[in-house]
């Protein structure tokens, strides 16, 4: 491989840290290997697989190594051993919040990194996890180019009224508005839709990204015109441990009557709510689907009720619905959830074919469905690799 021809992509989500190494010497990035940094086990683990999913490498850290940052350095070591010294041209990071200033990828200088760290109160579950590896990798290889790609960027064109909150306007001027997240996923899925169903791609589409975090995006002409997450990734749908949209009076009540501190309310809403809070069992949809506990069923019902409700709201923004796409861990794998959401939306002309839904091979609607329904596996990592490759090329030709 030519020197500096690859990009390492890190995707730090709320429940997982995934990565991919891409060759960017051709127009379209090619996956060389992928992996997972697993912090949930007693000893943090790094697993690297080839593009087909066969194991290439695995290492574990001591339990005392509470900071899994060392694992990022292990990834660099693996790349040097396997692909040669100097083969890595840059690292691309998924950064959840880009704030008002960033509508596209940006190089992570110290100034930019500090600016993004200041946004931590707006994404406390994600922003520190996204930015921690920037420091670790800088300490190991100070000369390495690091690039941030934002969840918020895809929604940068959101305009009032979709982007506005009904509070005095002076707050909007200070950046208090709907930003929206999961943009790297929506961008990828919108691109795939152009390939799968070119006649539909410009039409009224809702993409349902249902993972540990969950949100909806309404697209017209492939662009975001509304979304369920807001200033923070707490708004909108029921999530693994997040509450989604909630009467803001509840927050006041918890502070005034339950005497909870701001930090305690933040912890409750980000870490203890959602599927976990309602079921009292788990934030993981697989566990809930396998459970016979009534509380698990109640959590699932609330999840599908609110997802269907949100899709109807997005359809109203679009003044109709032509196409519905499921993605994310739950959207791609949980046929029961897709089926239940479809049933709640039958009045809107959503009719899912049970056999196609079982196999989840792209199109899953019945032939008499007014709405075309698809399952499209997301790929935030390749979206980041594409952005990094474009930025590096621009820098080269500048
Ligand atoms: N086969 C499956 N059936 C049902 N749910 C699944 C399945 N596989 C993954 N999930 C769910 O997907 C969610 C994680 O989604 P994912 O998009 O991978 O997370 P993240 O938001 O961390 O990127 C979990 O709730 C998990 O239970
Ligand atoms: C923004 C967000 O909620 O991301 P994730 O689903 O990866 O937690
Ligand atoms: Mg995710």
From TrEMBL:
User: Which residues of this protein are catalytic?
Assistant: 151
Positions annotated to bind Mg(2+): 11, 380
Q: State any GO CC term.
A: cytosol
Which residues hold ATP? Answer: 18, 209-213, 284-286, 329-333
Q: What InterPro entries does the annotation carry?
A: Ac/propionate_kinase (IPR004372), Aliphatic_acid_kin_short-chain (IPR000890), Aliphatic_acid_kinase_CS (IPR023865), ATPase_NBD (IPR043129)
The UniProt entry, under PROSITE patterns, shows: ACETATE_KINASE_1, ACETATE_KINASE_2
Q: Where does substrate bind?
A: 94
Its UniProt pathway annotation is: Metabolic intermediate biosynthesis; acetyl-CoA biosynthesis; acetyl-CoA from acetate: step 1/2
The protein's matches in PANTHER family, at most eight in alphabetical order, are given as: ACETATE KINASE (PTHR21060)
Name of the featured protein: Acetate kinase
């Amino acid at each position: 491989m030519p020197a500096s021809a690859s990009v390492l992509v890190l995707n730090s989500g709320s429940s997982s840290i995934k990565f991919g190494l891409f060759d960017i010497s051709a127009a379209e990035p090619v996956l060389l290997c992928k992996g997972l940094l697993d912090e949930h086990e007693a000893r943090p683990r790094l697993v690297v697989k080839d593009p087909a999913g066969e194991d290439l490498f695995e290492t574990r850290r001591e339990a005392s190594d509470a900071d899994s940052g060392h694992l990022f350095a292990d990834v660099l070591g693996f790349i040097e051993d396997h692909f040669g010294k100097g083969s890595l041209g840059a690292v691309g990071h998924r950064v959840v919040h880009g704030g008002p200033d960033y509508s596209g990828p940006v190089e992570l200088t110290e100034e930019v990194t500090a600016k993004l760290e200041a946004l931590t109160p707006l994404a406390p579950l994600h922003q520190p996890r996204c930015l921690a590896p920037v420091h670790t990798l800088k300490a190991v290889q100070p000369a390495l180019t690091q690039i941030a790609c934002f969840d918020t960027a895809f929604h940068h064109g959101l305009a009032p009224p979709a982007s506005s909150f009904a509070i005095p306007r002076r707050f909007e001027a200070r950046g208090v508005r709907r930003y929206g997240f999961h943009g790297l996923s929506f961008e990828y899925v919108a691109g795939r839709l152009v390939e799968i169903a070119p006649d539909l791609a410009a039409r009224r589409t809702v993409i349902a990204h249902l993972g540990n975090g969950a949100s909806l995006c309404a697209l017209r002409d492939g662009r975001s015109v509304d979304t369920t997450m807001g200033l923070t990734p707490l708004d909108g749908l029921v999530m693994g441990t997040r509450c989604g949209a909630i009467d803001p009076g509840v927050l006041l009540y918890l502070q005034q009557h339950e005497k909870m501190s701001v930090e305690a309310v933040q912890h409750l809403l980000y870490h203890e709510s959602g599927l976990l809070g309602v079921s009292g069992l788990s934030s993981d949809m697989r566990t809930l689907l396998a459970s016979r506990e009534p509380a698990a069923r109640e959590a699932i019902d609330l999840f599908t009720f609110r997802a269907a409700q949100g899709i109807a709201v997005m359809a109203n923004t679009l003044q109709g619905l032509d196409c519905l796409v499921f993605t994310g861990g739950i959207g791609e794998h949980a046929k029961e959830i897709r089926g239940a959401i479809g049933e709640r939306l039958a009045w809107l002309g959503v009719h899912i074919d049970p056999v196609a839904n079982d196999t989840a091979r792209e199109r899953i609607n019945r032939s008499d469905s007014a709405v075309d329904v698809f399952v499209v596996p997301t790929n935030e990592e390749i979206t980041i690799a594409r952005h990094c490759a474009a930025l590096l090329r621009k820098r080269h030709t500048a």
